[in-house]
Design goal:
DHBP synthase, Rossmann fold, 10-stranded mixed β-sheet, 5-stranded parallel β-sheet, 11 helices, 15 strands, binds threonylcarbamoyladenylate, binds magnesium ion
Length: about 350
């Protein structure tokens, strides 16, 4: 696998110029590709929403080169947030903070908070450092679809609308950042990602709150139909994946399977991906695998249920949001069908 981690200065200069002129630039981060615009240019931010087909009131993440720029964007930074920034930035952690007055409503969706992240991908760092300001960047996909983890995913989906795509190879993590908010000195985890609740607890030496509350800021990624392929996706009990694949493909229906093992026998009409048992690799490949299965011309994608283990938490979260249904017995809460 070729790893392209740095852009040439010519590419970076051109991207910075484009951002200054109000154009969009897609760029790699260690999580997924972002669709970037100058965070201080409301027309450019609106264009991001247009290109994604995303409802205008949804807030976006502001990306910065370093925590030193925080004070331009957040009117106050709780001590606990500073401690998280020191430990986890640059990296896959997004913090929701009280917005500074000059942050545009187009960025925050009119809320009193702004989401901020300092990505670690070298090319994102090059771009942000050269640009000097904040870059809003939702994942560079159409609203409700799978996030892109390779430059070609962005080109396939947004190609005609986004002329400039910085190609940084495959995203290292493959799943969107962990998002946290603050309730006084207490941290609330709004979206699971590579930075886990255990890591947050261990670093802070304190309990944290899990999941969005009704009064929590809106996280559109927490609505159903997010991160979804077009083919309907069903999560099936781990031990029954072969049986489901066999039953569903009976009579010649084509079926797609995302499993953590090889099939017990060869199923004739089944496109089977063994994504393995290692959560890092599984997460890295997840969106690319779902894209592949989505294009396989199948009536359904069956996903073998993943372990109830924190290392699989972000994967489980994205699978549940992508699922149109969940079959069989489940013990966890928040499982929705239909
Ligand atoms: O890894 C990531 O976070 C990627 C890369 C490109 O950085 N970005 C990403 O952006 O996933 P997006 O827009 O697809 O998801 C950002 C999430 C949304 O669910 C949004 O609602 C939430 O962040 N968000 C943004 N601003 C917020 C705020 N002020 N309060 C609560 N949630 C916010
Ligand atoms: Mg997204």
């Amino acid at each position: 696998m070729v790893r392209v981690l740095r852009a040439t200065q010519v590419e970076i200069d051109a991207a910075v110029q484009a951002l200054r002129e109000g154009e969009l630039v897609a760029f790699p981060t260690e999580t997924v590709y972002g669709l970037g615009a100058n965070a201080q240019d409301p027309a450019a931010v609106r264009r991001v929403f247009e290109v994604k087909g995303r409802p205008a009131h949804h807030p976006v993440i502001v990306h910065l080169a370093s925590a030193r720029q925080l004070q331009h964007w957040a009117r106050e930074v709780p001590e606990v947030a500073r401690r998280l920034a020191e430990r986890f930035w640059p990296g896959p952690l997004t913090m929701v903070l009280p917005r500074a007055v000059q942050v545009h409503d187009s960025v925050t969706g009119g809320q009193d908070t702004v989401a901020i992240r300092v990505p670690s991908h070298p090319m994102a760092q090059q771009l942000l450092t050269a640009f000097g300001g904040g870059i809003v960047a939702p994942s560079a996909n159409r609203y409700g679809k799978l996030s892109p983890t390779r430059a070609e995913h962005v080109r396939e989906e947004l190609g005609h609308a986004v002329r400039r795509v910085l190609d940084g190879g495959e995203c290292q993590l493959g799943l969107e950042s962990t998002i946290v908010s603050f309730e006084g000195p207490t941290v609330r985890l709004l979206r699971p990602g590579a930075v886990t609740a255990t890591q947050l607890r261990a670093h802070l030496g304190e309990e944290i709150l899990l999941g969005a509350r009704d009064s929590s800021p809106r996280v559109p990624g927490s609505t159903r139909s997010h991160y979804a392929p077009s083919t309907s996706l069903t999560i099936v009990p781990a031990t029954q994946i072969d049986a489901y694949a066999a039953a569903l493909s009976e009579g010649g229906r084509r079926v797609a399977v995302l499993a953590q093992c090889l099939p017990l026998k060869v199923h004739r009409y089944v496109t089977w991906i063994n994504a393995g048992r290692r959560p890092e690799q599984y997460g890295h490949d997840l969106y690319a695998n779902l894209r592949t299965l989505d294009r396989a011309g199948c009536v359904q994608i069956l996903v073998q249920d993943v372990p109830q283990d924190e290392r699989w938490e972000a994967i489980r979260d994205r699978l549940l949001r992508a699922a149109t249904s969940v079959s069989g017995e489940r013990t966890d809460t928040g499982v929705m069908a239909g």
